[in-house]
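QA checklist item 7 of 12: single-chain prediction sanity check.
[x] sequence parsed
[x] length recorded as 221
[x] structure emitted
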Amino acid sequence: IPEWNVAPVTSPLEVQYPIACGTAHAQKRAGKKAISIVTGGDAGTAEGDFASSLILASRKGQELPMLITVQNNKWGISTSYEGQHGETFIADRAKGFNIKSRVINGNDPIETFICVKEDMDYIRKTGKPAFIEARVSRLYGHSSASGANPVQDEVDPVKEFEKKLLKNDVIKPKEVSEIWEAFEQEGVQATEVARKEPVPAADSVWDHTYVDNENADWRKF
């Protein structure tokens, strides 16, 4: 979404971390207070791209204005956290590079909002990176490797926040019902639209690969 400065997350896991180092470097050179925010999952942090981003973000005198975040639901598709990591907290790895880091309850929107704001303010003030490891639930399986059924005994953050809002009289039961109904309808409508869309045509394989693709001369190859 160019107007929001939102770049797409890459399909290869965790490649986005060093890419964000590039955007943060460009922002630092421009001398603005802009920052880069990058996110990924816990499993991908075991890859070299993630480790490289910590190095690039934290070099003394060349620190980058980045908010590095990891959503840790303790699973990488069908691999458990314990089967992939030796460290207790991923955030501890950032500390080794003198990066301001913390572990938060990512299921709590209030805590998450406050912590993200504090770290964004810190980055804009210092020009240095910050690291957030958000511990979150995994409500459903990831793919065919782990199934798509609901996972038992996981905290549903939306329903928990709903309870908190109702308890503090921030929202009424009727409003809650209306919100759920509206989103249900939105999901049904989106499904209907997707089912009616045509399958991709062969000549569209290079669409959105090159700038100004319609005038590109790639077809001669």
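[x] summary fact logged: Helices lie at 16-30, 48-58, 91-95, 109-126, 157-167, 173-196.
[ ] second reviewer sign-off
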